Amino acid sequence: MAMMTFAAIDIGAYEVSMKIFELSRKVGFKELNDVRYRLEVGNDSYTRGKLSPEMVDYLCEILTDFKRMMLEFGVTEYRACATSAFRELKNPLIVLEQIYRRTEIRVEILSNAEQHFIGYKSIAAIENGFKKMIQKGTAILDVGGGSLQVSLFDKDALVTTQNLKMGSLRIRERLKELEKTTIHYDQLVEEFIRNDLVSFQRLYLKDRDVKNVILMGDFLTDTIFQEDMEDRILTKAEFLNRYENTAYKPVQQLSDEMGIDPEYASLVVPTMVIIKNFIDIFNAESLWAPGVSLLDGIAYDFAERKKYLKSAHNFENDILVASRNIAKRYSSGKNHIQGTTEVALAIFDSTKKVHGMGQRERLLLQIAVQLHDCGKYINMGDVSECSYQIIMETEIIGLSTEERYIIANAVRYNKEEFKYRSGFEYDDAMDNEKYLLIAKLAAILRLANAMDRSHYQKVEGIKTELKDRKLSMILDSNRDLSLELGLLKDKVDFFEEVFGIRLALRRKKKA
Asked: Residue 494 belongs to a domain with what CATH number?
């Protein structure tokens, strides 16, 4: 297909928006239309955990209007996403079903890690500016209505990303009554977020030198950075001057000056205070507000997956680096992980015709290897269960909640006895496809991990040959493999059961 039309829809905390793009291999993606409706879904979600019937009605009306526009533009593919406001609902599936029945639009709820990974892809779409900026210590601040995501980069690699529940709409709702009692609202917001700021600084900014800050979100370009700026870059001094001219004004004055609704204007001060405080703890030199949003990231991600464009930035490597940093946080053995990864990938690559898994599953296997021992940090007597809990409670940038669940279970059954399908029958997150994937990844992880049982990385190379459903695996080593080969029987049995092939292992002694 030479060209297609794609729509990206975002149901955010304070607005519902859609962009329509033209995708082609020649130009990548080009924006055709941008439409937004003010709707504070987060108002209901963050305070009550449910959407009122009137809110659902408004939302369906907007999405029906979007559907009409998609037909007018000849849209053939779309992706509709909801973010933090829907993640905090008590009854999200009920609301999603109502939306689909009334509009025929399928909405997916992005996990926080997925949302911000896609968001940061929107910045990477401006490849020259992004690649140049992240060569130095850089932070991305994505200030949403419900939360703030902080991602730290160093030398083109994602170091860490953390989510803090200090979104502008959430802060406004929490401080609504207190705001009436003070003339220093900015100071009130500062005090409210101070504890999270101090904790973030203590845990993640040791020896980090952050020179640049990238600011994400449509809200910024609709309000604080409305006017044109050269390269959309400000120095720290320029931002602080803008802060002084904004933070102390009443909401109605901001509304009049910016030409926006007062409810929207009431989010300006919390957003400015958040940015100012992070600039201070970073001691950053410059800010870049590229003017991109989650919608751009959704389109970029779709175009990348459909081969309409190829990114110069390695996003898969960001996921692996983030996983490696989690393993490091829990003192996992670096050499053991590296050795086990090499063995696991050799097994995966040599059995592609048998297991039917693709590149995404290969990535999940690598992450499972990275994190399979992290539970030792908690309890060396119950490593598998502790590792499972750590993975399930830790956001990994770029992974969905389902993918994290698959990795956590593969790690759990690396050592625990595998539960057959009946053992998962009361688990709502499990279906047949996930069950089989967990079994496959666990079988490979078990085998690879056992080959470095001593943690001495004795296996220096593996040569494999698959013929007539028999996998011959020749281990290249100059060292005694008695321990490893002697403890492999149950791992081999499970591997053969899962993949339906015979496994023959032997050692090739180096000359």
From this structure: 1.10.3210.10
